[in-house]
Every structure is written in structure tokens, then in C-alpha cells.
Write a structure and sequence with these properties.
- The complex is a heterodimer of chains A (635) and B (179).
- The longest helix of chain A has 27 residues, at 538-564.
- In chain A, strands 1, 2, 3, 4, 10 and 11 form a six-stranded mixed β-sheet that branches. Chain A has a six-stranded mixed β-sheet with strand order 17-12-13-14-18-21. In chain A, strands 20-19-23-24-27 form a five-stranded antiparallel β-sheet, with no helix packed on it.
- Chain A contains 15 helices and 27 strands.
- Chain A is 35% helix and 25% strand.
- Chain A folds into four domains: 21-202 and 374-396, Nucleotidyltransferase, domain 5, CATH 3.30.420.40; 205-373, ATPase, nucleotide binding domain (Nucleotidyltransferase, domain 5), CATH 3.30.420.40; 410-521, Substrate Binding Domain Of DNAk, Chain A, domain 1; 537-631, Substrate Binding Domain Of Dnak, Chain:A, Domain 2 (Up-down Bundle).
- Chain A is globular and about 85 Å long.
- Chain A is of the alpha+beta class.
- Chain B has 179 residues and is mostly helical.
- The radius of gyration of chain B is 20 Å and the shape is globular.
- The termini of chain B are far apart.
- The longest helix of chain B has 31 residues, at 148-178.
- In chain B, helix 3 (45-66) crosses helix 4 (68-78).
- The chains are: A alpha+beta (635), B mainly alpha (179).
């Protein structure tokens, strides 16, 4: 007979509870959601893609808007895209965190020209029947749909999600992705790079030390990443690619070929007929994976053309595009100080890697058959699900740790329109760097800080991320002030900049205005609007979220007190206990603002405790003792 | 939070120029596995913030010890010798002459897109960079840091290392763009 287990007083009597964690591949063409089916073992279960009611894994990243908001999404939206092109948004991932001048071809979108530049930033807005829509809002609809799907399948609210982004995404694009999640009411555990997720899905984290190339050719983005795996730690050694190159361009090449064969221009086709041709081109491309040739036609009231596209001709059409990807692979190898023969595994990701020419060229470069046994459309979502499962602590013995790098250098504008790099590309994140600057004129009391991302020396060649002003500098002679600008990049690759004058100790407030992102207030407005549309009770939801946060914090503080309570004096302990009691007490009532205040207060009074714990832990770690010894109190 | 400013102590290495790269990397990864923000998802926001800070500090420390010029600079700084990379000048005439010759060979080979010549030059410069590093290591062991002349010699050697590092980077990127 099994013995009954009794827990020690004060220790958690609850059995280990699995959290509902999901992985989302938010793609340009298609999106997917996956989760790990937990079987109760420490090793963790198997990741599966969660399908919709019709049994389909993929949700096309397409949203159709009507006068009362979102009308159709996914396959339904795709089906009516040709009939309602201006209200149907597709490939909007290309607009995430971007300004008008970043996008070479916006013909597929009905862009709103900013009428008053003074009050709005440079976010691209698209005119639809439901009003002006940003890429972040459309992405939020995709995220909401996938989250609802996961909530049904997993039988309850989702605790957190890992969302994947192209490794090449800059700060503004990553921030835009997080904003989309905020709009969708989703708790983001971490943004991870798509190629890294793919390597995780292949279980390469369990392999020996090796170098891995992930070649990811999706609908609208191309990424190549060189990963190093060593002692269970993934490191991204180099990333390269093109955030505006993908299978959609193969389709466009076929469209251009068909138009030239038919001797007509795009202008001669209606928007509907052009959409139809695009869909036909995509089908033709897919058909050429298994067939040597495929028929193609253009039919309208004035035009009638039919032709035959062979795989050889198709290969010629896309040759320069594929060559671009191969050149990016070589450049990334150089960045990582490796040659093709150093690569142990090549993983293919993205539906476009089914194109035979792509497989041939990749195999030729790395002189090996690339891995394809996990569905290239699903592999990223599956890897994200595994990482999400690990981050929430469902797989207790997981040694998996992803160490990431920043894809593009970060810097600020200096005199003469030049960029001074502060954090160089391929620097490991999180990262923190400070740089000192000084004033240019006598008596200067303010300083304009312009934050940029990119590799080039001129401001005009880099992407503008944000501008802010540092005010309140004491008047001094030129060059006497010492202004310290601090760049902090978190584990999601998102930048936070602060500046202060150090010579006099005057620190001034800094407000960062994202150049291509949504402001705090705009996000709040959009959230309010979406509640109205969905008929949700905003206050009820906010209260529920506050309660979850309060419970999580109390749990974490209790755990910390159990482990390291001796680091506090009796008086300090009393203050924390009181603050904790207040949070627990208020969480039972329904004043969400009071809960938020109590949570903030508990955070404040545990600040010193947290620092002492960290100091003790690090001191012990540096002395060669394991953290477990400290936790066990055997120090 | 107290952040250990001696990166050798932080990453468990002997405070000297020659480092065991494998051991360095191993200790770095061991610490990242404990303190990376991914390990603090269920902790309080305060602890999460500290983890981000410490993890970033570990990344900086590793980047410094992993690079010869930065490592040498850090070693000197720990001994109280500050180096201003932007305003330091090298007056050694034979070194400057040699640099000019290398520069000429580089310009000629680049103008002629002479890839083999550039590769030969890169090998030469890499060897000189290596020798310079060994020189620094030996100087460091035998030097009296209280002596101003020894201090100047060490500073000059770091300046020369920086020259070689830049040349190697430049040559590598030219070779890359030509091939």
C-alpha cells in the first residue's frame, strides 16, 4: 500500500499544477498555434498544433473588415479577398513597426495618407470599412482567434504565450508584435526567433555540441540563422536575411511572367482579376513542386490568355531571388566565422522550402540533405510551444536555455548626421551599455536624442526608432556637461533608452516616442474600442487580470520568504507580511485600482529583499556552490 | 545589487591575459543557465529586473574576456592603468613604417581585386596580431606596473593590438566582398 504523503508546514500543499502555455507562429501568410500535451512526467509531453473546428491547422493571416469591425478571418477572409480587396488585409506582417518610406510596394493596401502629421506618429494606417486599421490591430485579431482556439482545446484560460518573430526583426517590429499581443489580451512569456524555435522543435537541443543552420523561407520573410548548440545552451551566432523576401515574391514573379506573356499591364486588370491571378500563381507554384509544368490563364471581359509554365522557366524566374538567399547564407557563415563544412544540420522552415530549386541550392551549399521531416509549416509553432512549456515551469528538468543576440546595431545620432553605435549587432541579449555625450553649445540646456538601428554610418541610411529630449541640463560651457545615455535591451530584444546629466547629478525625465509604434494612450484607446465591439465587460476583465497578477505575486513572495526569510530583520518581515496581507485581502474585493496599488506597494517593500537574495545567490554561485545548496538552507 | 566589476572573478578565471576559452565559456553558460531572465518568469517583477541586469552584466563580462584587445584593456584597468583608445598615439617609428607598408599592399591588392594577395596579407597580419598578444602576455608578467615606462610599454602594445585587430577586420570584410 502506498504511504500517504504529508507536506511540511508552510510548504505548498498543492500538487504541481500544469500551466496552459502556448506557442504562436504569427506568420506573414499563415499563422499557427501549438501546445504541449502534458502527461504529468517531468520530461514533458509532445507538442501538437491545435486545429480549428474544421480540423485545419493553419489560420491564413488574413482579416476582412466590415462596417461593424472584423467580418471574416483566416480562410473565410481569404475566400472573399478577391471580391472585397480593399477591406481584406493580408501580408500585414510586412507593415509591423514600419513607416511608409520603409515599404517599397504598398499597392495591395489602401494606405491612409496622414492629414495632420503633428498629432500622429508614422504608423501606417489602412482605410477599411471599419475605419483606419493598423497592422498591430489586424495581428491582434489573428492572435485572439488562435488564443480562443487554444482556450477551447486546453479547457481554460491561457497563462502565457511564446510568440515567434523573424530573427531579423528590429526593435520597432518586435515592439509592434508585443503591442499586438497586448491588444489581444495575451500574456507574452517571451518573443523568440523563428529559426531558434525550429531547431527546438527538431529536438536538436538534445544533440551534442554542433552548429546548425536554419533556412526559413516563408511567405513574406527570409531568415537564415547560424545556431551553436553547446551543453544544452542555444546561441544564435549570426542572423541574416531579408524581411521583405519570401514565397509571395515567387508568386509575383509568376504574375509578372504571365502579364508579359499576355502582353498586358497590371493596370489593365481590375483589382479582383489581379487578386485572382495572384491566387492562380500561388497554386501554379505549389503544383510545380511535383509536376514539370502547369497551365495558367487570365480571363476578363477584355482579355483572354492561356499559357504553360514549365518548372525550368519557373526556376529561371526565381533564380535571382534564390541566389539572394544563398548569398545571405554565406554572409551569415562569415559573420559566425564558419564555413559550410562546419555545419552539422540544416533545418528547412516555411512552405516555400518545398520549392525544388530551393532545396537543391541549399543542399549544394551545405553539401548535405536538409532536414524536412517535421512539417515546415508547423515546425516553428511546435518549437514555440515547447519553449512556452519550459518557461512556465511545466518541464521541471529542462536544461533548455536560449541565448539570443541583437540582429542590428543600435546607436544614436551625433553631430553631422552620423550614427554612433552603442550596441553592436550580434551582441548577446539582455544587454546594457552606457555612453557619454556632451553639449555642443555654451549654455545648452536641452539635448535631442535620436535613437537609430542599422549598420550604416549615416542617419539617413538607418531606421529611426525613437526621438526624445533631455531637458533641465544646467547651463555650462560647451563640452562641460556629461550626458550618460543608457541602452537596455531585454531578453525579447526590445530596447529601452534613458539619459541623464552626470556632472551635476541632474537627471531629467525622458519620454520616448516610438517612430513607428503605437503610443501608450493609443493602445488604451484601441483596447477600449475592441471591448465595445466585442461587447465585453472591460472592468470585469481588468479585475480578473489584476487578481491573477496579485495571486502570482503573493505566491512568488511567499516562496522567496520560505527560502530566504532569514535575510530580513523582524521589522522588515512585518512590513512585507502586512503588504502581502493587504494584497490578499483586496484581491477578494472588486476594486481593481486598489488591488493595483497594493500590488505596487508590495513590489516596493520587497525591493531590498529581492536585491539581498540576488546578492547572496550570486555570491554563493561565484564561490562555486550550487544554487540548490543555498535554497536548501545548507549554506 | 552589487555587480562584480572584476570580470575574471565574475567568470571564475585567473586574472591574466591568457584565458582558457573552453573554461571561460563553460562558466559563462553555467551562470546564464541560473540567472537568465527565462529562469525568472515566475518570480516577482523586482527579481525579474535584477535577473535582466545580472544577465546583461554576464554578457558584457564574457564579451570583454573573449576579445583580446578588450581583455588586455580590462586587465590594465584592473591594475589602475586607464586606456583612452580614441586619443592614444603610437610613436614607435618601425611599427608605423610597417603599418604604412601593409596599408600600401592592401590598397594595391584591393584596387587590383587581387584575392590571393589579400589572403596572404591577412595571414601575415593575423600572425603579427598573435605575436603582439604573446608579447603583451609576457610583458604583463614581467612588468612593474608602478613603473611609468613599463606602463607606457603596455599601453603601446594594446594600441598595436588594436591596429592589428582593425586591419584583420578590414581585410576580412574586403575579402568577403570580393569573393
Amino acid at each position: 500500500m502506498a504511504l500517504l504523503q504529508i507536506s511540511e508546514p508552510g510548504q505548498s500543499p498543492l500538487p504541481h499544477q500544469f500551466k496552459r502555455a502556448i506557442g504562436i507562429d504569427l506568420g506573414t501568410t499563415n499563422s499557427l498555434v501549438a501546445a504541449v500535451a502534458n502527461d504529468g512526467t517531468a520530461a514533458g509531453g509532445i507538442a501538437n498544433v491545435i486545429k480549428d473546428a474544421e480540423g485545419r491547422a493553419i489560420l491564413p493571416s488574413v482579416v476582412n473588415y466590415g462596417t461593424s469591425g472584423v467580418q471574416h478571418i483566416g480562410y473565410q477572409a481569404q475566400a472573399i479577398a478577391a471580391d472585397d480587396p480593399h477591406n481584406t488585409l493580408a501580408s500585414f506582417k510586412r507593415l509591423m513597426g514600419r513607416g511608409l518610406k520603409d515599404i517599397s510596394d504598398t499597392s495591395q493596401f489602401k494606405i491612409v495618407t496622414p492629414s495632420d502629421a503633428s498629432d500622429k506618429n508614422d504608423v501606417i494606417r489602412i482605410a477599411t470599412a471599419a475605419g483606419e486599421i493598423t497592422a498591430m490591430q489586424a495581428s491582434a485579431e489573428i492572435l485572439k482567434n488562435l488564443t480562443a482556439r487554444a482556450t477551447d482545446a486546453l479547457g481554460g484560460a491561457i497563462d502565457g504565450a511564446v510568440i515567434t518573430v523573424p530573427a531579423y526583426f528590429d526593435d520597432a517590429q518586435r515592439q509592434a508584435t508585443k503591442d499586438a499581443a497586448t491588444l489581444a489580451g495575451l500574456n507574452v512569456l517571451r518573443l523568440i526567433n523563428e529559426p531558434t524555435a525550429a531547431a527546438v522543435a527538431y529536438g536538436l537541443d538534445k544533440a551534442d555540441d554542433r552548429h546548425i543552420v536554419v533556412y526559413d523561407l516563408g511567405g513574406g520573410t527570409f531568415d537564415v540563422s547560424i545556431l551553436q548548440l553547446s551543453e544544452g545552451v542555444f546561441e544564435v551566432l549570426a542572423t541574416g536575411g531579408d524581411s521583405a523576401l519570401g514565397g509571395d515574391d515567387f508568386d509575383l514573379a509568376i504574375v509578372a511572367w504571365a502579364l508579359s506573356q499576355a502582353e498586358i499591364t497590371q493596370a489593365e486588370l481590375s483589382a479582383q482579376n489581379y487578386r485572382r491571378l495572384l491566387v492562380d500563381a500561388r497554386n501554379a507554384k505549389q503544383s510545380l513542386t511535383d509536376n514539370a509544368s502547369v497551365g495558367l490563364s487570365i480571363q476578363s471581359s477584355t482579355i483572354s490568355w492561356a499559357g504553360e509554365l514549365t518548372r525550368d522557366v519557373f526556376n529561371q524566374l526565381i533564380d535571382s531571388l534564390v541566389t539572394t538567399t544563398i548569398a545571405a547564407c554565406k554572409a551569415s557563415l562569415d559573420d559566425a566565422d564558419l564555413t559550410a563544412s562546419d555545419i552539422a544540420d540544416v533545418v528547412l522552415v516555411g512552405g516555400s522550402t518545398r520549392v525544388p530549386l530551393v532545396r537543391e541550392r541549399v543542399a549544394a551549399l551545405f553539401q548535405q540533405t536538409p532536414k524536412t521531416d517535421v512539417d515546415p509549416d508547423q515546425v516553428v509553432a511546435l518549437g514555440a510551444a515547447i519553449q512556452a512549456d519550459s518557461l512556465v515551469g511545466n518541464r521541471s528538468n529542462s536544461d533548455l536555455l536560449l541565448l539570443d543576440v541583437i540582429p542590428l546595431s543600435l546607436g544614436i545620432e551625433t553631430m553631422g548626421g552620423l550614427v554612433e553605435k552603442i550596441i553592436h549587432r550580434n551582441t548577446s541579449i539582455p544587454s546594457s551599455r552606457a555612453q557619454e555625450f556632451t553639449t555642443y553649445k555654451d549654455g545648452q540646456t536641452a539635448l535631442a536624442v535620436h535613437v537609430l538601428q542599422g549598420e550604416r554610418d549615416l542617419v539617413s541610411d538607418c531606421r529611426s526608432l525613437a526621438r526624445f529630449e533631455l531637458r533641465g541640463i544646467l547651463p555650462m560651457v560647451a563640452g562641460a556637461a556629461r550626458i550618460e545615455v543608457v541602452f537596455n535591451v531585454d531578453a525579447d530584444g526590445i530596447l529601452d533608452v534613458s539619459a541623464k546629466e552626470t556632472a551635476t547629478g541632474v537627471s531629467a525625465n525622458v519620454q520616448v516616442k516610438p517612430s513607428y509604434g503605437l503610443g501608450e494612450s493609443e493602445i488604451t484607446e484601441m483596447l477600449k474600442a475592441s471591448y465595445t465591439h466585442a461587447g465585453e465587460d472591460r472592468d470585469a476583465r481588468m479585475l480578473a487580470e489584476q487578481r491573477v497578477e496579485a495571486e502570482g505575486l503573493v505566491e512568488a513572495v511567499k516562496m522567496a520568504l520560505e527560502q530566504d526569510g532569514e535575510l530580513l530583520s523582524d521589522d522588515e518581515r512585518k512590513v512585507i507580511d502586512a503588504a502581502m496581507g493587504k494584497v490578499s485581502e483586496l484581491a477578494l474585493l472588486s476594486d481593481s485600482q486598489a488591488i493595483a496599488d497594493a500590488v505596487a506597494e508590495l513590489g516596493r517593500v520587497t525591493d531590498t529583499f529581492a536585491t539581498r537574495r540576488m546578492d547572496q545567490s550570486i555570491r554563493t554561485a561565484l564561490q562555486g556552490k550550487s544554487i540548490d545548496d543555498v535554497a536548501d538552507g545548507s549554506l | 545589487m552589487k555587480l562584480e566589476q572584476n570580470f575574471f572573478t565574475l567568470l571564475g578565471q585567473v586574472q591574466q591575459f591568457t584565458v582558457n576559452r573552453a573554461a571561460l565559456k563553460k562558466q559563462f553558460r553555467h551562470l546564464q543557465r541560473e540567472y537568465h531572465p527565462d529562469r525568472y518568469i515566475a518570480k516577482t517583477p523586482q527579481e525579474q529586473r535584477l535577473a535582466v541586469q545580472f544577465s546583461a552584466h554576464l554578457n558584457t563580462a564574457f564579451a570583454v574576456l573573449d576579445n583580446p584587445v578588450k581583455r588586455a584593456t580590462h586587465l590594465l584597468e584592473l591594475s589602475g592603468v586607464e586606456i583612452d583608445h580614441q586619443n592614444s598615439t603610437i610613436k614607435d617609428p618601425s611599427f608605423l613604417m610597417q603599418q604604412m607598408e601593409i596599408r600600401e599592399t592592401l590598397d594595391d591588392a584591393r584596387a587590383a581585386s587581387d584575392l590571393p594577395a589579400l589572403e596572404v596579407l591577412l595571414n601575415q597580419v593575423s600572425d603579427q596580431f598573435q605575436a603582439c598578444q604573446q608579447g603583451f602576455s609576457a610583458q604583463m608578467e614581467s612588468s612593474q606596473l608602478s613603473s611609468p615606462s613599463d606602463e607606457k610599454d603596455l599601453r603601446d602594445t594594446v594600441g598595436k593590438m588594436q591596429f592589428y585587430e582593425k586591419l584583420c577586420d578590414e581585410l576580412t570584410s574586403i575579402i568577403r566582398s570580393l569573393s
